[in-house]
Amino acid sequence: MIKTTIIDVAKEAGVSKSTVSRVIRGDITSVREDTRKRVQEAIRKTGYKQNALASGLRTKRTHTVLLMIPDIVNPFWPEVARGVQDALRKEGYAVVLANSDWDGTIETDFLHRARTHCFDGIVINPARVTDQQLLQIGIPTVILGLHEDFPSFDSVGNDTLAGVRLAMQHLYDLGHRKIGLISGQYASRGRSARLKQYLSFLSDQNLIIEENDIVHCPYGQHHGYEAAKRLINQNHPPSAIFASNDILAIGALQALHAAGVRVPQDLSLIGMDDIYPASVTTPPLTTIAKFKYEEGREAARMLIDRIDRQTSKHPKTITFAPQLIIRGSTKPSTKPY
Amino acid sequence: MIKTTIIDVAKEAGVSKSTVSRVIRGDITSVREDTRKRVQEAIRKTGYKQNALASGLRTKRTHTVLLMIPDIVNPFWPEVARGVQDALRKEGYAVVLANSDWDGTIETDFLHRARTHCFDGIVINPARVTDQQLLQIGIPTVILGLHEDFPSFDSVGNDTLAGVRLAMQHLYDLGHRKIGLISGQYASRGRSARLKQYLSFLSDQNLIIEENDIVHCPYGQHHGYEAAKRLINQNHPPSAIFASNDILAIGALQALHAAGVRVPQDLSLIGMDDIYPASVTTPPLTTIAKFKYEEGREAARMLIDRIDRQTSKHPKTITFAPQLIIRGSTKPSTKPY
DNA sequence: CTGAAAGCGCTAACAA
DNA sequence: TTGTTAGCGCTTTCAG
């Protein structure tokens, strides 16, 4: 099992290694038909396999892309990952999958690695890294998700704010006037845009904003559980709850179950993301669906585009409009306005 | 942003590139303290970053591993993937994640790629590839899952058969004597070992085996749905159902809901795998938990071991014993024996 | 259309 | 302890 090189092939075919290299790279114009045949036959006979390291060393292309997400175990990300992997594979790229766990050190490590290993591109949902730092890596990059703080890069994501509005509007249309919010937030970032959108919706409808109807918590099912508990343990509990993602909503649903609050008869509940587990709860969760696979796919396509034509045209953003998926956890309010 | 090389560093530090190479590789014994300091300072000043392609070309090590699984979107695999990624990252390896989709072509493509890109190792849940083919790749490999047809490799997995027994025993202990089976199967492989185990359990207990209590179907939620429907639409429906994985069980649960069969009051249901969605159904699913993260982690560790000491010692197998997780979908049978 | 030759950036003997 | 010298396997001018 000694590795064969182009030299072995060249010998076998009775040509120079440059010629072999030409046919390998598919440089069709500059090799005569019959010599190409001969070389290909020699390749077959010797069982030659290209060494991507060697060629990459010259061409500076590895056909490898780094995909960095917070955590592949979170059901949201596998779908996005599939999107980028499928699109990238079609074009001959492999993807190195990294979980940052929201940890800046891990993130930096992998970004570093992308450089040392000469990856051709990066697709990232940034945890701690900044626009500037990313710029310094010097590798074509596209951002997963709509962050306004990455102006230097292409990005693709779902319009979360529109999603919030959609959710609130749905609840409002069902007659709900006192709507609780479970607002997930990352340790790192400030007040979420989702909260702002919630507030502005309420004021647009001339509804009263009550502090007690808003609970902030980290993302995580049990946090959703606790949040819902707080929401319903007040004198005037809301008739509907919007949880800012499905994991939180699932936690909330369990809290409501436990408290004997029937969903949707006693209280409506809506989540966001449309992850698979949300479809198997009882009742199945009404939610705001994001385009996850598509987000990944488009990110990959944009990246390939960047890689192919080196031209540094203005960063582009692709935005998906989330969709309301009505399932079983919401129904018209029975309370009088 | 011109890439700096060891030569630049060497110049800056006033040493030869070999010396620079030595300190980069941490060859501590053979560089004097002060020159090392000088070199490190030069590295810092020049912003030098190693080129992993160039070094890999010499050392034949890329610190990259291929992880091939059927589908990252299937909730079982992200946990396994995390296990291998975490363990591998600690040792400085990156992992290229590939979804085979049970497709032999894709599988072969990536395996091929593992060779051309000189990956250091492979962790794979094989779809179509054979022991021999894998052997020919010539890269240290460990198998995910317990397949008897890969005698040449280390492998790690959960003892599914023990799991089947555990599930059946649980149902039996609850007094169930007519137990239906929803047996998932892959398009490619023959009669599943799970079925055999089910049959042998029944005969061990001197229970009657009824063809109508067994439904074969591909893995997939809606197949579980249809299977359960068939199972309960007979004159003598079983009092309990064992679905050979949680996805199937979730489908079954929905069919039972739809048919007005209460779980667990009217019928007990047990699944296998313990994927996250199984914990959020109503009732939450009793299931046989597999060690997913651990499976991945141990696979990674075995792989590293193989890579480090080239020695080709006898293939080893690590087996995890699945555990019964009693949740809400099973209860004592009300039917007389 | 084909071959010779010069590297890509690094490592690894072998000298010094 | 450090430097010199060959390459690793491939691509890419540049001649021919």
Walk me through what this model shows.
The structure is a homodimer. In chain A, about 40% of the residues lie in helices and about 15% in strands. With about 325 residues, chain A is of the alpha/beta class. Chain A is elongated and about 90 Å long. In chain A, the strands form two sheets. Chain A has a six-stranded parallel sheet, sandwiched between helices. A six-stranded mixed sheet of chain A has the order 7-6-8-9-10-12, with helices on both faces. Chain A has three domains: about 5-50, 434 Repressor (Amino-terminal Domain) (Orthogonal Bundle); about 65-160 and about 290-320, Rossmann fold; about 160-290, Response regulator (Rossmann fold, 3-Layer(aba) Sandwich), CATH 3.40.50. In chain A, strand 1, helix 5 and strand 2 form a beta-alpha-beta unit. The first copy, chain A, has helices at about 5-15, 15-25, 35-45, 50-60, 75-90, 105-115, 130-135, 160-175, 195-205, 220-230, 245-260, 290-310, and strands spanning about 65-70, 95-100, 120-125, 140-145, 155-160, 180-185, 215-220, 240-245, 270-275, 285-290, 315-320, 325. Chain A binds a DNA duplex (16 and 16 nucleotides) through helix 2 and helix 4.
Distance between the termini of chain A: 79 Å
Query: What is the CATH third-level topology name of the largest domain in chain A?
Result: Rossmann fold
Q: Give Rg of chain A in angstroms.
A: 26 Å
- Spans where pLDDT lies below 50 across 5 or more residues of chain A: none
How many helix segments of chain A? 12
- Order of strands in the sheet with the most strands of chain A? 2-1-3-4-5-11
What is the count of structural domains of chain A? 3
Mean pLDDT of chain A: 94
SSE succession of chain A: HHHHEHEHEHEEHEHEHEHEEHEE
Sum up the overall morphology of chain A in one term.
elongated
Main sheet record of chain A: 6 strands, parallel
Helical amount of chain A: 40-55%
Tell me which CATH architecture of the largest domain in chain A applies here: 3-Layer(aba) Sandwich
Oligomer: homodimer
Name of the CATH superfamily of the largest domain in chain A:
Response regulator
For the secondary structure, the number of strands of chain A is 12
Largest interface: A-B, 47 and 47 residues
Class from helix and strand fractions of chain A: alpha/beta
